Sequence to fold (337 residues):
Amino acid sequence: MFTEEERQLLSKCKAKIGCEQLTHCMLMPYSEFLRTTGLCQEQAQRAWTLISKAYPWQQHMQKASVGAEQWLTTGDSHIDRLLGGGIRMGSIVEVVGESAAGKTQFCLQLAIAAQLPRDSGGIGGDVVYVSTEGAVPTGRLATMIGPFSRAHKGMQAASIMQHIQVAELEDMETMFHALNYKIPALLATGKVRLVIIDSIAAHLRFDLDGEGSRKSQDFYKERSSLLIQLGAKFKKWAAQYSCTFVCVNQVKDVFQPQSLLRDTNDSEQSTQASGADLESEFAMVRSNKAPALGAIWASIVNVRIMLYQRRGLAPSLSDTPEESRLPEHLLRTRSAG
Fold:
């Protein structure tokens, strides 16, 4: 399929990025691909084209479109309307926001709503709730289930709890072991339709053991590779088992104004959006915050839901611009095919 020269070029890309399959490169922005591989513009463009042609995009899209789409209600009609009907099954959804913005609350609500019958917006399947930041708040979950079961007759609180499996993963090694072995085993049973990871960023945000700039660079390079591999697995499992992954992300402070993140004198950079530009594009409104896992993770998720905590009295819905009419804890969403 490839010439010897092309195989050598692609092997170099694979070694530099550290991914298992070359098609995983398509999960990262081109600018990140160019930086990570260290290739010149001409070689990088050639490698990118070869990888694009080798991946059966059309066949993949046809498989993903087989059968009617299913949607999971978020339990809030305003958010459902904003998302075009709720959470689309077979997708990767990111929930990002500052501390106390309501990320865990939103995920718990999704776990409960999943137990609804399909004709009521549920998916009629089990939920796996993975916590990487301490104990799963089962007390809060039980408190939320009470009103839910009363509002939907026939839904028993005990039955709902039995269909929500929880796992508490305290370090990165335990997390990746669960994601590589336990989660796929549960999905293979055909019962699990929703996997919630709260949060995906907890063990991947900082290099706690590294010292110095060189070790820090190695950490972020390794993290990029891990995110690409995780994203590829999530997409594969989501399509194979018709399930959805909801991943909580944290935020980081952004100190540079958006205008300083672009080099207007560099014509080559102006033709390709940089990772910093991509992060700025989705920076949180009215605050200098951006998702913690950067541009590579942003290119993997299908939907991004950004939450923030509004201080003071919330304006009425009629006073809010059309494009920003959301529930008070929801900032905005980004949806990609």
